[in-house]
């Protein structure tokens, strides 16, 4: 839990009473590999902080192909924030790629934190902005670089992740076939 407190303190000053209040609203959620944190067609129930494991955001394109568009690993927030805040139906899935342990906040508890702690909305806004910027920073090179460079950048942005998750997800994220990814990996060794 210390990781979570240290993480939020990067974005604003909170005293012990405030961090204790935030922790009192947190619940622990364990997801097994392949279980969903949030599902398309349903209203997201939580905003979470990953203590252990990896989750991915994915959707199905108009040809019914599953597309992975981002990964989130330990010591990061995970949520379909826009849909969570508006309590609207999600259009994508957030799925556990490994067994995961998270601290989660329901909409009611998340709002209660915001209504109780002066300045929490600014901290939460900075956290969400940071999450979005990380996603964009990791995603942007995938558009303009060749596949070998994309794979190198993937390993740079997600050190060790390629050994923890199915290669089919990595290939989908990179926008290439699994066979192409296997060739790239073989050539790099």
UniProtKB/TrEMBL annotation:
<dbReference type="InterPro" id="IPR000595">
    <property type="entry name" value="cNMP-bd_dom"/>
</dbReference>
<feature type="domain" description="Cyclic nucleotide-binding">
    <location>
        <begin position="30"/>
        <end position="113"/>
    </location>
</feature>
<dbReference type="InterPro" id="IPR014710">
    <property type="entry name" value="RmlC-like_jellyroll"/>
</dbReference>
<dbReference type="InterPro" id="IPR018490">
    <property type="entry name" value="cNMP-bd_dom_sf"/>
</dbReference>
<dbReference type="Pfam" id="PF00027">
    <property type="entry name" value="cNMP_binding"/>
</dbReference>
<protein>
    <submittedName>
        <fullName>Crp/Fnr family transcriptional regulator</fullName>
    </submittedName>
</protein>
């Amino acid at each position: 839990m210390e990781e979570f407190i240290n993480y939020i303190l990067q974005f604003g000053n909170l005293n012990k009473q405030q961090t204790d209040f935030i922790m009192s609203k947190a619940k622990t959620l364990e997801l097994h590999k392949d279980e969903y944190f949030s599902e398309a067609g349903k209203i997201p129930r939580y905003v979470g902080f990953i203590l252990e494991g990896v989750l991915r955001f994915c959707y199905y394109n108009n040809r019914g192909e599953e597309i992975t568009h981002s990964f989130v690993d330990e010591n990061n927030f995970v949520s379909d924030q826009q849909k969570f805040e508006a309590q609207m139906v999600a259009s994508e899935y957030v799925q556990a790629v490994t067994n995961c342990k998270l601290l989660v906040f329901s909409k009611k508890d998340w709002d209660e934190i915001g209504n109780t702690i002066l300045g929490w909305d600014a901290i939460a806004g900075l956290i969400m902005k940071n999450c979005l910027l990380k996603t964009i920073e990791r995603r942007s090179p995938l558009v303009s670089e060749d596949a070998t460079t994309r794979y190198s950048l993937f390993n740079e942005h997600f050190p060790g992740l390629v050994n923890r998750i199915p290669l089919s997800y990595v290939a989908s994220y990179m926008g290439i076939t699994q066979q192409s990814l296997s060739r790239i990996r073989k050539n790099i060794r």
